Amino acid sequence: MDLQLAAAQAAFRDDVRAFLRERLPGELRERVRLGLRPSREQVVQWQRALHERGWAAPHWPREFGGADLGQMERLILMDELQLAPAPLPLHFNVTMLGPVLLKYGTPEQKRDWLPRLARLDVWFCQGFSEPGAGSDLASLRTSARHEGEHYVVNGQKTWTTYAHMADWIFLLVRTDPQAARKQEGISFLLVDLKTPGITIRPIHTIDGEHHLNEVFFDDVKVPVANRVGDENKGWDVTKSLLGSERTGLAYVGMSRDRLDRAIELARNTRDGARRVIDDPAIQAEIAWIDAELRGLEVTNLRLLLCAQAQRDNPAFASVLKLKGVEIQQQVASLMLRIAGPAALARSEDERGVPATRYFFTRASSIYGGTTEVQKDVLAKAVLG
Ligand SMILES: Cc1cc2nc3c(=O)[nH]c(=O)nc-3n(C[C@H](O)[C@H](O)[C@H](O)COP(=O)(O)OP(=O)(O)OC[C@H]3O[C@@H](n4cnc5c(N)ncnc54)[C@H](O)[C@@H]3O)c2cc1C
Q1: What are the backbone angles phi and psi of residue 271, rounded to the nearest 5°?
Q2: Domains in the chain, please, with CATH?
Q3: Which atom of ligand 1 is nearest to the CA of 363?
């Protein structure tokens, strides 16, 4: 397979690189490089800079703030952002909710929401998982009673990433508890997190950070106009959203950037008399991960070139998610081994990062569909 970019694609990549050199603030680049979380303000300002160029939601139509980019250009853009490294456009707005609104939203919902999602004027989080409904999402119990012009929502969501930073939440609720199948009777609502009756509590994770939350709903009134798709047909909306969630999770550019940094760290770290990079076991591990990463890169391209109907096959998304996560975890383990005990220093510099990142990366085989569930999807696709 010829991995050379066509002339127009190479020119596009150079445009992206020039844009990043000019517009990506040095301090933001450094925070991402060190694996530290940028502030909300930094993320918003950066997404606005991307938006001015049409690159915040590159695959959306221009009329809603996108750039109508083709699959290949979008891949190049995402790779270059990860290699810079720069924050990616907010996944919840751009990769998850945006495509759902494009497919299922009313003309008013598209007009009202899409430009604001692209510019990050409003920050969404994802309210799907509940205690007892994660992999088996259709078992969710948060209820929404239809009363006139409103739904009245009661229940609990959990593991809600960035709920404490978000303005709104897209929420799966049960609108028909009597439905014959549990996938029926679910609806998809957009909810303002400032609505009375909502309580957000932090969940602190093993990396010592606050990314996650529990969100409680106690008689929360949500206008019926905030429903996306038909009542009780939210499962169709969810399937389409989860497909796009998995496509975004290969993170080839990010793993490449982190592998390069692991090599740099191995060159600058000593283990007794020798540099860590001179250890043959470390060299073999680097070579192995590098080969795996190249394999993933080619697979990503191969899937991209398949006909659209093929690309929509959930098994393809599962391959990318599975392998992407495996490599992210391998790089994080390698980094930890290279850094040695210094990895445990909790400081806002290079030394504290490997352990923090290692712990967070463990979660990547859980969110967006666990590894076991991805393997189930693949087994069904391959074995029938
Ligand atoms: C860091 C992080 C961020 C997250 N962010 C969000 C968010 O923003 N919004 C949101 O809604 N959710 C979020 N989640 C939740 C995430 O989607 C769920 O954790 C995930 O779907 C797994 O569900 P669960 O935790 O209930 O585990 P379970 O579904 O209870 O799974 C427990 C174990 O059983 C295995 N298992 C389950 N079913 C099967 C099966 N059929 N075959 C084989 N093995 C199986 C699983 O692989 C897992 O190992 C986040 C999770 C994490 C860790």
Answers
A1: -120, 95
A2: 7-89 (1.10.540.10), 124-234 (2.40.110.10), 249-383 (1.20.140.10)
A3: 53
